[in-house]
Amino acid sequence: MPSEPMNKKRRRKRRGNTSPPLPLPLPLPLPSSSPSSEQEQEEEQEQEEVGLVGFHLKPSASSKSHTIQPLGNLLLLSGSSSNARDPGLGSLRLLPDDLLLDILTLLPAPDLARLAAVSKPLYVFSTHEPLWRNLVLSDLGGDFLFNGSWRSTYSGLVFPHPSISIRDFYSDYLFQSWLCANLDMRPEWLCTDNIDRRRGISVDEFIARFEEPNRPVLLEGCIDAWPAISKWAPDWLIRTCGDKRFAVGPVKMTMERYFRYAAAAREERPLYLFDPRFAEKAPELGSDYEVPVFFREDLFGVLGEQRPDYRWIIIGPAGSGSSFHVDPNSTSAWNAVIKGSKKWIMFPPEVVPPGVHPSPDGAEVACPVSIMEWFMNFYSVCRKWKKKPVECVCKAGEVVFVPNGWWHLVINLEDSIAITHNFVSRRNLLNVLDFLKKPNASELVSGTKDRTSLHDKFKNAIEAAYPGTIDELILKAKEKIAREKKPTFWESVADANVGGFKFSF
C-alpha cells in the first residue's frame, strides 16, 4: 500500500483554492478553569495571541519567533491597528501570498537569504520553511544532517541565518501552514472505530467475508511471531542498515540521517521513508517478517523479477502519512504496523472522498495540501454522509486489509514503522487485467518500466502457470452477474407496467 498513489499523478490543490475554506479560528474567551501550571498558562497565553484558544497545539509548537495570525484577528482589533505584511513589500504587496511564495521558489538560496534582510515582511516570506525544504532536497539531496529547521539545515552550511521577532503579521495562507504543522489530532477525529476486527479467523472465512465482497478488515494477532516486532527500533535499524540509502520522498538517505530528521521534524508534511527495495538492501529486514497466511496467494509472483514493485518498508514521525489515493494497478494490499499507530480513513471505490478530485481518466488526483488540512476542512463533512467512511486506529501488531479500488488516507499518530504489500489473488485478478489494458495504461500503470506490455506479459504468464484459470474466473463472473439480474418469482409474475400480475401457461 504505497503512501503516495503510485498509479496516479498527484496534483495538490494550491492552498487558498480548497473548498470549503479552512475555518480559521478567531480569539475566543479563555476557559473558566484555571491552568494547572505555569507552562500551561504560558501555552494558553501564546494560543490566545494567535487566536488558537479551543485548539490543542503540539508541545513543541511556539509562536514566539514571529507570530503569524489569521486575517480575522486583524478585523477584531481597533481601527488604528495595521497589518505588518504590507509595509516593506512595495509593489509586491498586491500579490496574493501563495503567488508571492511561488515566485520565491525560483530564487537560489543566497538570493533568498539576501531578500530576507530587505524588510520585515520579506523576512517572513523568505524564511517560509517549505521554500528551504525544496532547496535542501534539490541542492543537497539526501546528504544533509537536519538541524531543527530546513533553513538552518541549509544556511548553517553556507551563510549566517539570524532570526528576528516580528509581530502583527496577518496572513491566512501562512497561518494555515503553521497551524497544520503544529495542531494535534483532535479527539473527535480519532474516536470512531467502525472497521470489522477479527482475531483467529480462517483463510476461508477471510476470503468469504472480506476479500470476496471487497470489504476492509483489521486483523489481530496474525503477526505476533514476527522477529521485527521486538527488533525493529531506530538504533537497531541504524546499526543493521549502516550506510545503505533508502528512498525518502525525492531523495535517498541513510537510516541514521533519516531518524535524525524524523526526531526533530515539525512541519506540515513530514518526509516519509518509503522504500520498495529494502529487503535487497538489507536482507535481514526481509527475513524478519513473513506474509500473513491470508495474503499468500500473490499471482503477480508468476512474473518473478519482472513483477511491479509490491512491498515497502514505511517509516515516519507523528503527522506523516499518505493523502487519499487508490493503490496501484488495481491491486489489494495489507499493511502491518510494527511500531507506533496509524489512523485510517477508507471510502469504497464508488465514493470519492470530499476534497479529492480525480481526473476523468484517473491519471491525476487533486487533493488538499496536507492530511491535517483535510481533517480540518472535510472530516466533519463526510461524517454526515449516508455512506460514511470506514475508520480505525491500527496499533502495533495489527494488520489492515485494503481491498482493491478503495480510497484511503493514513496518518501516523506517533513515530511508526510498518510493512506493506500489494498483491493479486484470484478474487481481483480480472480487475487487475482490465486495469493493465486500459488505453492510457502508460500513465496509470506503476512500479515497472514495462507499462504498455505488462498486461500481455502477465496474462500469458498466468495462462502458462495456471491453465484455464482466467476463463474459469470470467465464467464465474458472468454467472454472478446473471444471478444478480435474475428476477425473483414474484418479480417474474408481477407486471411492471400496470402493477398487477401476468400469467402464462
TrEMBL record:
<feature type="compositionally biased region" description="Pro residues">
    <location>
        <begin position="20"/>
        <end position="32"/>
    </location>
</feature>
<dbReference type="InterPro" id="IPR003347">
    <property type="entry name" value="JmjC_dom"/>
</dbReference>
<keyword id="KW-0479">Metal-binding</keyword>
<feature type="compositionally biased region" description="Acidic residues">
    <location>
        <begin position="39"/>
        <end position="49"/>
    </location>
</feature>
<keyword id="KW-0560">Oxidoreductase</keyword>
<feature type="domain" description="JmjC">
    <location>
        <begin position="280"/>
        <end position="440"/>
    </location>
</feature>
<dbReference type="Pfam" id="PF12937">
    <property type="entry name" value="F-box-like"/>
</dbReference>
<feature type="region of interest" description="Disordered">
    <location>
        <begin position="1"/>
        <end position="50"/>
    </location>
</feature>
<dbReference type="GO" id="GO:0046872">
    <property type="term" value="F:metal ion binding"/>
</dbReference>
<protein>
    <submittedName>
        <fullName>F-box protein At5g06550</fullName>
    </submittedName>
</protein>
<comment type="similarity">
    <text>Belongs to the JARID1 histone demethylase family.</text>
</comment>
<keyword id="KW-0539">Nucleus</keyword>
<dbReference type="GO" id="GO:0005634">
    <property type="term" value="C:nucleus"/>
</dbReference>
<feature type="domain" description="F-box">
    <location>
        <begin position="89"/>
        <end position="135"/>
    </location>
</feature>
<dbReference type="InterPro" id="IPR001810">
    <property type="entry name" value="F-box_dom"/>
</dbReference>
<dbReference type="InterPro" id="IPR041667">
    <property type="entry name" value="Cupin_8"/>
</dbReference>
<dbReference type="InterPro" id="IPR036047">
    <property type="entry name" value="F-box-like_dom_sf"/>
</dbReference>
<dbReference type="GO" id="GO:0000987">
    <property type="term" value="F:cis-regulatory region sequence-specific DNA binding"/>
</dbReference>
<dbReference type="GO" id="GO:0016491">
    <property type="term" value="F:oxidoreductase activity"/>
</dbReference>
<dbReference type="InterPro" id="IPR050910">
    <property type="entry name" value="JMJD6_ArgDemeth/LysHydrox"/>
</dbReference>
<keyword id="KW-0408">Iron</keyword>
<dbReference type="Pfam" id="PF13621">
    <property type="entry name" value="Cupin_8"/>
</dbReference>
